[in-house]
Amino acid sequence: MSAAIRNPYAGRGPFAGRQQELAEIREYLAQGDSALLIGGRRAGKTSLAEHLGDIERPLYRFDAPSCSLESEANVIRALGRKLGGDCGTRDELTALLRSRAPLAVVVDEADQILAETWAGSFLSYLRHLVDNELRSELAILLIGGPALNRYKNPDDKGSPPLNTARRVYLQPLKREARRELAAPLPAPPDFDWLDLHAAGHPWLLQRLLEQLWRGRSQDEALERVFAEALPNFEIWKRQLGEAGHRFLDALPPDGVARTALLRDPAWRPYHEAAVIAKSLCLVDVDEQGRVRRGPALFLDWLGTAQVADEWDLAISYASEDVTIAREIAKELTGKMSVFFAPDQNAYLWGDDLNRVLPQTYGVNARYVLALTSKAYVKKHWTNVEWQAALGGSARKLLVMELDALPPDMPPGLIYRAFKPENLISLISDLTKVVGRA
Amino acid sequence: MIADAMRLTASQMRDLRRLVTELFTGDEFTDVLLQLGGTKVVDGVTPGRPVDVFVLEALDALQRRGLIDDRFFDLLVEHRPRSARAIRSFQRSVSARQEEPRYDFFISYAHADAHHAQELLRYLQNAGARVFMDQLFKPGVDLDLAIREVIGASGTLLVLLSKQSARSSWIHHEIAFALEESPRRGRMRVVPIFLAPPEELDIPYALTAYQGVFPEAEGGMAGVAARLMALTEDSRPARRGFLRLIQGLFGIGSEDAVAEDEAAEEEASTDLQLRELAQQFFTAAGRKAVYRNPNELSVPEPALVAADVPPSPSDVRGLARLLRPGQVGYFLFKEALPERTLLALDELRVRGNAIVPLAANAMTAALADGTARTMLAQLDSDYRSRDNFFETRNALIDERFFFGRHDLLAQVGSALSRGEHILVFGLRKAGKTSLLNILRQHLPNHPFFIADLQKYDRHEEDWPLLLFGQLLQAYDQWGSAKFGDWPRAATPPHNATELEDALRVRREWQLARKSDERLVVVLDEIERVFPSPSEEVPARKFIRAAGALRSLGQSGADRFVSIIAADLRPEANRLNRLGSAGTNPFFNFFQEVPLPLLSREAVDEMITSIGRAMGITTVNGDFLQQVFALAGGHPFVSRLLAGAAYRCRSGDRARLSSEDLNNGLDDLNERDALGSFFRENLWGELRDSERRLLIDHVAGRTPAGAGDEAERAFLRALGLLDRGTIPIGLFASWVAARTS
Fold first, then answer.
1. What confidence tier does B639 reach under pLDDT thresholds 50, 70, 90?
2. Second label for A229, Cα 20 to 30 Å away, from A187, B88, B399, B438?
3. Contact assignment for A262 to B385 by CB distance below 8 Å
4. B394 vs A135: CB contact, 8 Å cut-off?
5. Which residues in chain B have their CB less than 8 angstroms from residue A102's CB?
């Protein structure tokens, strides 16, 4: 293959399919309805948003991680700049949005915002804008993983902040789109082989096609893509969550008819898991509408992957209290396996903490140490961790109060108050309690 | 001849013009004119104009001279005997509206007040009035039919209001018929007669806009009768004087009563008011509005100001004539749309013209609130670009789509008129904000401040001060729109005292100008600012804001601020102690009004009516039955189901069937639309003890019983429990699947 020929699969690669999702989102934004676009990592959310095209009103794109998310004011300023203005408060942003109305604002990687303490209040403000202040003059599209679907801040009283938005879930690519993606190849590939290994997952499919385009054999292609995909596999596994795993296990080899999945009471408990699995493109839908297992490349790995990661102790803390948490983690290193989030970037590198965290704090850690503070009590993710630790059946919860206790602290649970001078005795006690001996 | 002259409305004149131009040439019609009134009629009519212009001018001249009468129609028939049927039909339709009432008064009363009614009847009859009350019916008649007929032929409905009358279903029925269905509605007077002080009565909401008479103040029934007889004298200034005289007995609706009475009397005046209002509204919404004809506005799409009150199908036909295929049109009207007019609008919409209806009260309210642009954009978006009206997500601002809540609206309006403060609580997406939006439109002349408390951060912001500033701003917005020299605020208030002082200055200014409408403050989503148990700083803020508002709502004899709060739970009214910050000023302050789920009838009406607006002519009975069983009357869930069925319908495109519903359900489940709604908006908002109760119910277990009465009562008030079952069938299945 000549180096002069441009690799058609470089970057985001060719775009195909997605007509239905695009049409839906365009319709919603054009008529002034806000929406959530939910899909798994590498399932093509950003590409889809880039192909929105004309929606009959100006569209402003904002990538959430493009600014510091430490305060709401930062995001307001960054949004203001995107709109070509200068604002630092909610009222100023409201006035700026009004001056640009009618408009649509697309926020990519919106689930990054959810981790912040100010997220609940900010999302309620956005809801106020679309409910009352600007109504159909402003349409907001939030793009993110399944976490977007379940966001609930314990501090966020009043209506759920996103509950008027429509939801659009990415779907596995259909056969026609898969064929279209293969068009740049010099000769038609073995589609049965592609359907088996990549199914409707756009990223896996593109990676395999790229290997074929480079002239590699099928086995070579599988080997290379597998190596490249491993970090994503870990993430997809956690995005699927327990319910998703159970759903995949329950799927018969020849799949299940769509209508049976939707109407048969036996499948009712799997509804949500099926929707999520489809949005991750990890199940497939054939021409007859049967829902089948998805990319074998991933599912074969999943079948052999260790089901649970084991930690002796997971530390649950608010980012405001990271110094204390780091100190404890450092002291325990070497004495036991500790889950301390900043040390586990690879593990957490995904976009669905709603699934990762319960798994870690509720299932995969023998003990959970919760450092409870005012910030801890208020934040969404720490609440997710706390609830998971409370619900973990055989887990032991150790509570250290920094300056506040969660309101649903189980009666009778003994906790200790943190004093810096007692850190050494704490470490010693933890080692004794958790120690495998 | 003049005594028999008919007075045609603008739309009737247009219809008559069309009839005449279809049947006559210019010369032939000139012959008719000459026969009617000689050259004096055709003088001033410019020769050589297009025939329709000539005919219109001629008809105007005839109307001015009182020459459109039976003889005129006889002459038309004489010249065009083959078209006699069409001509006579038109004549009858016009004559029907000119008929004089057979009775001056119809007395509506509760059986327990019969002696008062008898006394009033006697005085009125002695004064020469033609009076009817139901004891004059002969035994064996169909009372419902007979009452409708008599009310339809009465000039004034007198309603005796007492503690007993609130319980009389007949009285409510008679009021509803007089105001909504009677052929004389809009022209009929309604006078409440208070047998007890208003603050002790549960006044039907529909009557709050009408001025009442007090026997005590008039020296008994003889005085009331004398007062009422003055009404029958047909001098408009005199009646206006009467209304002004008793204006002020109520804080609510006095302006409306005067305006509506005048409007019913003189449609030309209505036209004028509505025309001015329409132009102001479009201008405020940022649209250039130019009158092409007296009732035709270019914005730049055609907008028609309906000449009739209430608007008639001929008004709709008037708009249809202005529209090119596929063009959008605006239909501006006063008073509620009668069913047949709605039908005509729907037909026009289904034929391909997006028609945006704009009610006068909604435009007035939007102008007073400074929301004309947002409102018009929303309606434009709904009617122009949305092809599935079931799928509206935001709270309603269009009464066309507001169903099954008019009784509640009446209840809230009635409580407000008694000077009470209300807390509306109910399930998410059950219509609380919609109810408040429509209430605002029903009180278009009032200063109204709807605070959406979602916009505040109770931790970070000094939200009470922001709220005070915006409240004053809303009052100023209203005052400046109504009065030229309103004392506007230069700076926002810095504390509660400054707010109260500023409001008082404005209130006194308002009263001095004979305008006494109460300021209504709505605190929507009050839980957003209500503190959690351990939150001291947010608690202090809440106490500051609630203390100031409570003081305004209770101060002195002139309670000029009414407060309405809304949210899922009535906590703001029930919790007294707010930690160490102090006590809750709103404790026991509100009258709690639960928002129930919709009745089967309301859901049926909602689906058939919205469906009809999209060309659905048939909704199968089993479809309606199934929707109600699945959604239990939850408005959002019902619309979600109907919307999905509409989107997935197959076969006859003008019909909704059970099969469409099943397909729609599949589509919703495929998107997890129902699951996510139940998870976030119902289940996610309940407390553990409430969830356990629901789980016990779906599992068929007998709940423990003792100690859960409060939870049970709350779930029942929300409509989540009813006689031991969960009425929202889909939610019951969802809970069952979750716990299986």
1. very high
2. A187
3. no
4. yes
5. 377
- The verdict on a CB contact (< 8 Å) between A125 and B454 is yes
What length does chain B have? 740
What CA–CA distances, in Å, run from B7 to A40, A69, B3, B91, B266?
70, 70, 11, 12, 10
| A263:B385 CB<8 A | no
Q: State which amino acid sits at residue B39.
A: T
Total CB pairs under 8 A between chain A and B = 128
Write phi, then psi, for A101 (nearest 5 degrees). -65, 150
Task: Find residue B194's DSSP bridge partners.
Answer: B161
Q: What is the pLDDT of residue B40?
A: 60
Q: Which two tokens stand for residue B3?
A: 């005594």
By the 10 Å C-beta count (0-12 exposed, 13-18 middle, 19+ buried), A61 is classed as middle
Q: Are strands A396-401 and A290-293 parallel, antiparallel or unpaired?
A: unpaired
| Listed residue (B38, B19, B39) closest to B79, CA to CA | B19
For B223, other C-beta atoms within 10 Å of its C-beta total 16
In terms of C-beta density within 10 A (0-12 exposed, 13-18 middle, 19 or more buried), how is residue B197 classed?
Answer: exposed
Least confident of B3-7, B310-314, B319-323: B3-7
Which ranges constitute the DSSP H helices of B600-708? 600-613, 621-631, 635-647, 658-670, 673-677, 688-698
Contacts of B672 in chain A (CB under 8 A): 149, 167, 169, 271-272, 275
Residues B733 and B740: their CA atoms lie apart, in Å, by: 10
Residues of A in contact with B679 (CB under 8 A): 150, 272
- Is cis: bond before A102, omega within 30 of 0? yes
Instruction: Choose from B398, B456, B467, B672 for mutation: most chain A CBs within 10 A.
Output: B672
At residue B47, the pLDDT reads: 57
- Kind of pairing between the strands at A283-285 and A290-293: antiparallel
Residue-wise pLDDT for B238-267, tens only, equals 223 222 222 322 333 334 443 444 444 444
Q: CA–CA separation, A273 vs B237, rounded Å?
A: 72
pLDDT tens-place string over residues B27-76: 888 888 888 776 666 655 555 667 777 788 788 878 777 788 888 898 89
Contact, B193 vs B160, CB < 8 A? yes
Asked whether the beta carbons of residue B738 and residue A125 sit closer than 8 angstroms, the reply is no
pLDDT-wise least confident of A17-26, A42-51, A348-357, B440-449: A348-357
The single residue listed with the structure tokens 């408990």 is A269
CA distance A427 to A420: 12
Contact B191, B159 (CB under 8 A): yes
Determine, for residues B534 and A404 on separate chains, whether the beta-carbon distance falls below 8 Å: yes
Measure B455 CA to nearest chain A CA, in Å: 5
User: In b/e form, how buried is each residue of A149-176, taking b as 16+ CB within 10 angstroms?
Assistant: bbbbbbbbbbbbbbbbbbbbbbbbbbee
Residue A123 CA to residue B455 CA, distance in Å, equals 9
Q: Residue A45: exposed, middle, or buried by beta-carbon count in 10 A (0-12, 13-18, 19+)?
A: buried
Predicted confidence (pLDDT) at residue B170 exceeds the cutoff of 90: no
> And the tokens for A251?
């799927």
